Amino acid sequence: MKSVNVGLCGLGTVGSGTFNVMQRNLEDIARRAGKPVRITHIGARRDNPACEVGEDVKISRDIFDVVRDPDVHIVVELIGGYDTAKALVLEAISNGKHVVTANKALIAVHGNEIFKAAEANGVVVAYEAAVAGGIPIIKGIREGLVANDIKWLAGIINGTGNFILTEMREKGRVFDDVLKEAQALGYAEADPTFDVEGIDAAHKLTILASIAFGIPLQFDKVYTEGISRITREDVQYAEELGYRIKHLGFTRKTAEGVELRVHPTLVPEKRLLANVNGVLNAVLVEGDAVGPTMYYGPGAGSEQTASSVIADIVDIAREIDNAGNVPHLGYSTETENLPVLPVSEIETAYYLRITVKDEIGQMAQIASIMSENGINIEAILQKEPEEDASTVPLILLTHPVREKHMDKAIEALQGLDSVIKPIVRIRVEQLDG
Ligand SMILES: NC(=O)c1ccc[n+]([C@@H]2O[C@H](COP(=O)([O-])OP(=O)(O)OC[C@H]3O[C@@H](n4cnc5c(N)ncnc54)[C@H](O)[C@@H]3O)[C@@H](O)[C@H]2O)c1
Ligand SMILES: N[C@@H](CCO)C(=O)O
Ligand code: NA
């Protein structure tokens, strides 16, 4: 093929970044691809003043005109959301076009169906930009770590959430104020509850677990907790114990099945992951041959994400007549269907914040409930009484325990007369391979 024509659907944050980087680096991109690669058709509801689109590019207000354009070889879906995006991608596939998307919601929820359709039609659906923005993590795992039996991976995979936690810790800012800034910077999802309630991270973890372990995409089985209940006090107490609170996606293969979970996590402050701040993302992957490797970079942003979108476009352009030599989820046959474990069977250490009446004998009662449930305490901090002087926060760090035993202990603790507020629990991961 002499030159490759790209149809761009959606001209928002990522769409405009993709257009501008393609224009700016056109010559280098052509030399790297071995042929000219051009955006020839844009589908957008309105023009974007951030993009100077020349006369040579066709503009359609109906994005479906792009997937029906016989001259377009690669359709780039950057509109986001589930339904229209799914219809658009499936129609592109059935019209024999390759697809590039940044839409993790679409891949995590409808990816199994979409990849099947793509394979049946001999086209590729590429999604590097969908996970960890500009970091080449899909390529890193699916190709770079192909030799390894992957044991586990842990990642900071939502830029907005990490930006919020960082600003709260470093500057003492309040949650809502930082979220507004993340939205203005173009980091947040159209519905920002996807960011702060962990749904976006769960979409990305679904994808990472599938390419790490060769299991089907199973978004509905991810245990998901967001950061919206994290307080400044917990951030501070964690710090006194030598930890940082990070919102992690975590997946591990055990003899019983696969853990798939997204939640705030205490990470020892000396770990690299604990020092990934702002909108930056990082994914730590443990392979049996290579050991731990970490991938670090911008998790969101216009040109940062465009970097991954264009990497996929060039990958396809290089092999356009022979595309598809890397299987969509990295495995060309269905893997043994490893079950996903319920969260009750997962074992982690815990940080607990228990607010008790300031009276004698509390500690003994708490210690005895913990020991009845087989839970060992690693550290206890007794803080100063709170403003009203009648209650004190007790901060406990435990050794690893099955979640179902911790559930029982918390239920018993919560039943004590002296425990007067809901107990806060945050899981702890040492992340030391
Ligand atoms: N913003 C980021 O940093 C980032 C990073 C990685 C992935 N993503 C993903 O990229 C995708 C796009 O995100 P964004 O931040 O660019 O969003 P955005 O809201 O800035 O852009 C989406 C654009 O698509 C347009 N659009 C939506 N439906 C349309 C339709 N039916 N017809 C025509 N135009 C339509 C909107 O008008 C808007 O201009 C999403 O799937 C998002 O999750 C975003
Ligand atoms: N809203 C997402 C965009 C990148 O996927 C984030 O903040 O990480
Ligand atoms: Na990526």
From TrEMBL:
It catalyses: L-homoserine + NAD(+) = L-aspartate 4-semialdehyde + NADH + H(+). It comes from Saccharospirillum salsuginis. This is Homoserine dehydrogenase. NADPH binds at residue 104. Belongs to the homoserine dehydrogenase family. Residues 351-427 form the ACT domain. Keywords: Amino-acid biosynthesis, Methionine biosynthesis, NADP, Oxidoreductase, Threonine biosynthesis. Coiled coil: none annotated. GO terms for biological process: methionine biosynthetic process; threonine biosynthetic process. Pfam families: ACT, Homoserine_dh, NAD_binding_3. The active site is at 204 (proton donor). NADP(+) binds at residues 9-16. Its EC number is 1.1.1.3. It comes from the Bacteria. The keyword Lyase does not apply.
